[in-house]
Task: inverse folding
């Protein structure tokens, strides 16, 4: 076992130091961002170089149904899963000593499986690298702690805090509000430390029980891996304290939604300099091109940034969601915000993505828009200096329209991969069709006896 454990990150080695490693979880992200794979005894993992799963896992919907294969065949051939030992991390909530390892999905000829979300992100990064660029991102994760909800017919409500009262809304940045569920936060910190993750900050957001966790900037794949892991980590911490953690875009009626804001900058590989800033510290044409690409292609990318019918409940005007393509310096009403920074840290923040998106796909889609802007070399609209909430509707406000826009944007599809886009469209249209067959309480209340 020593041969493969020598390749592990220091945090994973520290976690198993002096103890017998019992189990290894071999995982990949499906289209929804759900961890799929298999667990096995550590002794068996150490004897195998690769593992197998059917490629149909990328056709599975969030409900567990199977979407149509756009190629027309459904023979379910095996993929080869190759462990990425740099992703090995503890599963500190388990009863025994367990590691999780993210695997790359390859076909039997050794080529990346196009429909694997991690491979989609790597494809986009390879396009940047071919131009001599290296993107840097920093994600912000918003989510809710909620009371246990065991009956889907019942509304979701805030959790009970340590005071015996339910968490209150409109307490943004309140430290006392965070203290209400301090024990859960403590476990999140402990789990993150055991897994070797760096949390840049935790704060109370505007919703009842809504929290934001910021991660330090870095490599897009590494940070997508961390968000993928964090979602599980946070859910496990909440379950220890008799509540749920949810990453739904809009879990509670009347409360704000949960976003995954993504900060982007791009480094010139040869010089190590941020291409958004000139040697004199001024904004460069590339900075404006990146913004223009986002304005041009984000409408089609929304299908990946807002992947469920519930995602569009977050896109409500004047309700703490910047549902526009305006850009502005230090303006939180714009969908594309340029935060205050020094020239080296100049960046663009995409505020449109929901926390319900698959982190690999949300980051890939956002970077793809910026990449197309750099290649197309167009200029954005003038900066918005006022309240961008009043701008015109430019984004799709339901999943069906979003998928239509993605289908029409051939440039974005080329960057993300046509095979992947076909699979994604099939999965999401299947989910949308399933949703449309569900009759909601609103319909029963207002239509049953009135129409």
Result:
């Amino acid at each position: 076992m020593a041969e493969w454990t020598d390749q592990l990150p220091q945090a994973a080695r520290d976690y198993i130091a002096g103890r017998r490693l019992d189990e290894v979880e071999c995982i990949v992200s499906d289209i929804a961002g759900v961890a799929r794979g298999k667990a096995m005894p550590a002794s068996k993992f150490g004897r195998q170089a690769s593992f197998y799963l059917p490629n149909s896992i990328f056709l599975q919907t969030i409900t567990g149904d199977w979407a149509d294969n756009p190629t027309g065949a459904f023979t379910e051939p095996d993929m080869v899963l190759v462990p990425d030992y740099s992703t090995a991390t503890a599963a500190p909530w388990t009863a025994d000593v367990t590691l999780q390892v993210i695997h790359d999905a390859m076909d039997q000829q050794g080529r990346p499986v196009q429909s694997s979300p991690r491979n989609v992100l790597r494809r986009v990064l390879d396009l940047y690298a071919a131009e001599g660029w290296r993107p840097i991102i920093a994600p912000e994760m918003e989510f809710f702690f909620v009371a246990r909800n065991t009956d889907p017919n019942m509304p979701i409500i805030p959790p009970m805090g340590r005071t015996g009262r339910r968490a209150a809304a409109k307490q943004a940045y309140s430290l006392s509000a965070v203290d209400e569920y301090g024990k859960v936060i403590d476990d999140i910190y402990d789990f993150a430390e055991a897994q070797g993750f760096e949390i840049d900050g935790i704060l109370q957001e505007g919703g009842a029980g809504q929290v934001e966790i910021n991660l330090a900037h870095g490599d897009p794949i590494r940070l997508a891996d961390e968000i993928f892991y964090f979602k599980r980590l946070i859910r496990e911490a909440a379950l220890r304290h008799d509540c749920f953690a949810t990453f739904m875009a809009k879990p509670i009626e009347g409360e704000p939604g949960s976003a995954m804001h993504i900060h982007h900058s791009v480094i010139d590989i040869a010089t190590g300099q941020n291409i958004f800033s000139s040697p004199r510290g001024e904004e460069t044409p590339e900075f404006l091109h990146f913004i223009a690409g986002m304005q041009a292609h984000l409408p089609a990318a929304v299908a990946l940034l807002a992947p469920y019918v519930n995602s569009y409940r977050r896109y409500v005007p004047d309700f703490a969601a910047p549902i526009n393509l305006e850009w502005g310096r230090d303006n939180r009403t714009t969908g594309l915000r340029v935060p205050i920074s020094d020239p080296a840290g100049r960046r663009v923040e995409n505020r449109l993505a929901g926390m319900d998106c698959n982190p690999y796909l949300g980051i890939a889609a956002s970077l793809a828009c910026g990449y197309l802007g750099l290649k197309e070399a167009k200029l954005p609209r003038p900066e918005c200096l006022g309240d961008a909430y009043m701008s015109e509707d430019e984004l799709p406000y339901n999943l069906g329209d979003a998928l239509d826009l993605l289908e029409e944007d051939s440039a974005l599809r080329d960057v993300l991969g046509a095979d992947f886009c076909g699979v994604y469209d099939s999965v999401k249209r299947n989910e949308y069709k399933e949703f449309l067959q569900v009759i909601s309480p609103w319909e029963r209340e207002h239509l049953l006896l009135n129409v």
